[in-house]
Amino acid sequence: VKVEVENAVCTGHGRCYALAPEVFAPDDDGHCEVVHHEVPADLHAGARTAVGNCPEAALRVVE
Amino acid sequence: MTTTDPGADEALVSGAALFEEHTADDPRPVYRRLREECPVSRSAFLGTPAVMISRYEDVMWALKHPEVFSSGDAIAIGNERPLIPLQIDPPEHAAYRRLLDPEFGPKKMAELEDDARRLVNEIIDGFADSGACDFHEDFATPLPSTIFLRLMGLPQSDLPIFLQWRDNIIRPDVEYGDLEAAAEVREATGKDMYAYFGRAIDERMEEPDDGLLSRLLRAEVDDHRLTRDEALDICYLLIIAGLDTVTATLDCAIGYLAAHPERRRQLVDDPSVSAAAVEELLRYETPVMVIVRSVKEDTEFGGVQMQAGDGVTVVLGAANTDTDEFSDADDVRFDRDRNRHLAFGAGPHRCLGSHLARLELRVALEEFHRRIPDYRILDGAEIHYSPGIRQAESLPIVWDVA
Predict the structure, then answer these.
(1) Half-sphere exposure of residue B73, counting CA atoms within 13 Å on the CB side?
(2) How many cross-chain Cβ pairs, A to B, lie less than 8 Å apart?
């Protein structure tokens, strides 16, 4: 499973790195940076929750 | 559906109902009617025509399209120029956010956590042994204001005048509906605020310190130093946004938790639930009920004709309780799997202070429930919230002391 962020759409709500800090991290502006593009199996559930909580729909899971 | 169209069905809700006395105490029934009966509607608030947007999907679209629904000039609150960055739309908006986002980003805000936790405990020390407080007056008001003044590098002794300005701008003490008198109060207050910050800016030009104001004056935007006016226009917005909204959110959160001991018990038993509780209470209570935009060019949206310059009321609270987006929208659930609430808005104007607000709210919930786990609304007290930004007039709570 991979996760991707569309940087032009992210406005820095920060829901992703609050919910899945092992997969996403904030940059200095508070926008999303992907830590693990290839998400380890034990973090799949957290990654999916984070993606589903992005208000801007800036994140997606690629199977 | 409308108060301006003759022949409108009287049974339908009017957008003005949102601002009637006591609606803000529990606005959810009005939100529901707006979504169901007239999701996009022409309305009027105190004689001013406005378009009201209330469904989640439409609200989201409006917030993400500033080229259609502009945030510039949407509201005058005593300011002489557009507030920065709120009333500057993209593309000019981006340069200001590049400057301000790191100052309010989660990394920078994390540095404030220890200080915020200490402050929360000092405030609680002031009333813990007495078994009672007015939560609004004694906790929700001083916490964000003190943090704001420290962040800016302004003296704590100026807090009373800041609170007076906040009230003058957001809920001026005039007869209900007297827009002219309200505008006069706001303009006079605006002049005082410009003068105060003008002096503060001059002082820091002479003698810079470590505060945010000094950092702003050293900052560059689009290859030029921030001008004095630009710094003023940022300060104006920060006072209005920074002093009031977290106070309102704390009032709403503790007001809810005081009345719902089973939810409060979850926070007491497991403080790590606090972050999720903050998000859920932001959604369910939506302290900032509405935000405003204006129509940029003649357009049609949701079957309603809109003309350039029309005011737009974006009903965040209605979006946040929309059953099309949130399962069990009227239930408060701290274990919600998906919570894409819009309490901080969305799109380019997403609340600049959201990371600071979240920090203050989480630390407040953690420490308050650690220190005072069992509290209730004072017997016989009626809690009323102000419309627009839902602040409690007073929030008397009591608890048992050993």
Answers:
(1) 9
(2) 58
CB nearest to B355's CB, from A27, A30, A56: A30
- What pLDDT digit, counting tens, does each position of B138-181 carry? 999 999 999 999 999 999 999 999 999 999 998 899 987 788 99
Q: Is B278 on the interface with A (CB under 8 A)?
A: no
CA distance, residue A21 to nearest chain B CA (Å): 12
Substitution target from A9, A19, A24, A29 for chain B, most B beta carbons within 10 A: A29
Cα–Cα distances (Å) from B276 to A20, B122, B253, B283, in that order, read 13, 25, 12, 11
The ipTM, to two decimals, is 0.97
Mean pLDDT of chain B: 93
Closest-CA distance, B43 to chain A, in angstroms, reads: 28
Catalytic residue among B252, B281, B351, B361: B351
Q: What is the pTM of this model?
A: 0.95
